[in-house]
Structure formats: C-alpha cells, structure tokens
Amino acid sequence: MEAELKEILSDVDALKRSSIDPSLHNSIDQLRLRVEHLASLAESAPVQRSKVKDMSAEVIDSNPYSRLMALQRMGIVANYERIREFSVAIVGIGGVGSVAAEMLTRCGIGRLLLYDYDTVELANMNRLFFRPEQVGMTKTDAAVQTLSDINPDVVLESYTMNVTTVEGFDTFMSSLKKKTFRSHKEGCGVDLVLSCVDNYEARMVVNQACNELNQTWMESGVSEDAVSGHIQLLIPGETACFACVPPLVVASGVDERTLKREGVCAASLPTTMGVVAGLLVQNTLKYLLQFGQVSRYLGYNALKDYFPTMEMKPNTQCSNNACLERQAEYMLAKPARDAAAKAKLEAEALVVEEIPLHDDNEWNISVGDDIELEESATPSTDVLPEGLVHELPAADEYKHASSLEQDTQDANSADDLDELRRQLEALNAV
Ligand SMILES: [Zn+2]
C-alpha cells in the first residue's frame, strides 16, 4: 500500500513536469496533497502484534494473556492454557455469533470455525462487532479481518455458505469431522458447536449434524421483540435434542419460510444480544475448562431481569432417528457411568481419611478449638459501621435460601415452562 502510494506521487510529479498547460498545475497540486495525506495515514496504520508461542502468566503490560492466566493463580481454572487445544464451531455470525467469536478470540481459543452466507449491511450497525466500512463484505471475511487483528494466535477457518442446502450440509459435516488441528483427538475435530442462527430450519440442521456426529452443542436465540433470549446445552442422548421438544412450527409440518410476514422487521438490541452472547461464551468456557456449573437451559427475560433455568430430558418418541440411537447408547453405558461415579466418590472419601496426623511436634505448634475460632470470627464479619449493609448474604443464609429454592422448585417449574412457551412463540413469529 505504502509503496503504491509513493509510485502514484512520483507519477503525479512527472505529470506536472510534462504538462505544458499551467492552468492544470493547481489541480495537480491538489491531487498531490490528497495522495500525500493517504500516504501518511498508511504509515500510521496500527501494526499487528506478533504471535505468542506460549501463554505466559507474567504480569507485564505487553502480555496479552496475563489477566486470563490469573484465573489459574486465583484457583478458578486448573489449567487455563488448555484453551489453546480447543476448537469451537460457530454457525451464524450475526448479532450473537460475531460477539461470541470476538469473546472466544480474546480468550485465546485455539481454533474457530465460522459459518455464514450473509453480507454485512448498514442495518446491522445497531449491534456490536461489525463496522460501517465492512458493509458489502461477507460476514465471514469481515469477521476474519477483525478477529485476526485482535488475536493472531487463533486459527480461523471461514466457511461462506448456507448449511441448510444439501451441498452446505455436506461441507458442514466434513469440516466438523476434520482433525487437522489436533489429530489425536477422540470423536469429532471440534470440541463444541455453537448455534447462533436466527431460524428453525438452520437449528434443525445443526441438530441433525450434531446428533449424527454425537457432538455436544449449545443453542442460543433472541426473540423477535428483542427483549428475551436463551441458551441451551444439548448433549446427544443425554439431554433433549432440538427435535425432542419440537417448536410449534416444526411440529405442525408447516414450512416456516411461508410464515414470514411481508414488511415485518424483527427488532434487535445490542444489549440483549450482548447478554446472550456473554452467557453463551461463559458457559462455553466453563464447559471447555471444566470449572463451575454449565447451564442446561438458561433463559433471559430483559423486561423483568428474570433468568429461568430448567433441565430437559430426551424424548423417547423423538422424530430424529440419530437422537434415538444416541439415547440407546446413553442407556447402555449407564452401568459403567454409575460404577465410575461410585468409584470417584469412594476415592474422595479415602483421601479425606488418609490425611496424616503429626505425632511429632518439634515446634510445639498447637491448633485452637474450632468452636472458639468460629465464635471469634463471627462478630468481625457481622459488625459493620452504621449505615452499611452486606451486598451478598452470608454463607449460611445463602445455604438456607438454596434449600428454600429447592422446596419451591416444583412450583417454579410451571412458571419456567410458561416462560419457555412464550419465548418459543415469539421466535415462531419470525
Ligand atoms: Zn431428540
């Protein structure tokens, strides 16, 4: 770019020298000024950072991973660097998918596979990620451009295609199976598939592919009115698949494309989409790096700031054959799974018993009574200066609240189902 602009400058100079008409000199000078301006902009363009071989925990300003590796030091994640081994496929690079891709890129994910057939439009600018100068580019190309600048360590694969076509589905399947990134990996070539599409047809395609490949995936969605959304974990055979609990449109066999209303434009908010993308990637990180609890279903009602959760078991009458096969495999493996869980519990109990007692006490160290400690510790945390209150409940209050929650779970599940039904109806209206 810089070299080309310098060539244009010398061409302009040559043009001025050869021009015998002095009235043109002024225009040529104007042109030269504009090219000079472009050349200076090109020179000041940011330089992309070089790749980093190993993730370091060193606390220096130039380390892009110091804040992430701190999760390990704080005991949240056992081995953060493992994130570099994982491949995540994102289907649909729209309001949720693009933001999810950026979050995973910033977290240093090993490899991202991006699928979309659409192009960037000005009408997308109310959401995050894409920029006006990318209008007209395919979403996959624009995403690769931005993501590779943010973190060149991430391996990016872009698939500009529609997964709902026959050809697209074949390419989708073979790309998920490909093990070029980690050849010794068991199962598929990816660790997780994230569905960030905006229609049922595409969701059913992702569902079909993941059921066939026995691939765990997460589904996400935002309603047409922009004020609710959800994420859902789907483990073939273990949890309900997308066809197990069919949405109304699919159940009645109506082609959803015929339901689209002319001139009706779905609403969208960067806030709702950002929240859903955040919940989706938070659960992706928990799933991959094995910390915390991964949500099976988590809804988001923006009007009430209400987050319903629920579990959905597979439907033994599911219309998807691959789902029924996975269910049968899951049931067959039950005795082995139970035995492994029991062995783990026993091993943990043994570790507790085996904590060695020190008979020799060379330094005469004595440990105070537990009750005494508790009594002396309690007042120091409870007594606060006047006018101040605790932001969070104490551990015992929290425990009490959780057991109450357990008691009322049955009553809440009816509300949760109503909420889910409302969200599905809103989605159906797209
Ligand atoms: Zn199913």
From TrEMBL:
This is Ubiquitin-like modifier-activating enzyme 5. Residues 65-319 form the THIF-type NAD/FAD binding fold domain. GO terms for cellular component: cytoplasm; cytosol. Belongs to the ubiquitin-activating E1 family. UBA5 subfamily. Residues 396-416 are annotated as: Disordered. Keywords: ATP-binding, Metal-binding, Nucleotide-binding, Ubl conjugation pathway, Zinc. Residues 403-412 have a biased composition (Polar residues). InterPro entries: D-isomer_DH_CS1, ThiF/MoeB/HesA, ThiF_NAD_FAD-bd, Ubiquitin-activating_enz. It comes from Spinacia oleracea. PANTHER family: UBIQUITIN-ACTIVATING ENZYME E1, UBIQUITIN-LIKE MODIFIER-ACTIVATING ENZYME 5. One of its GO terms (molecular function) is metal ion binding. It holds the Pfam family ThiF. GO terms for biological process: protein ufmylation.
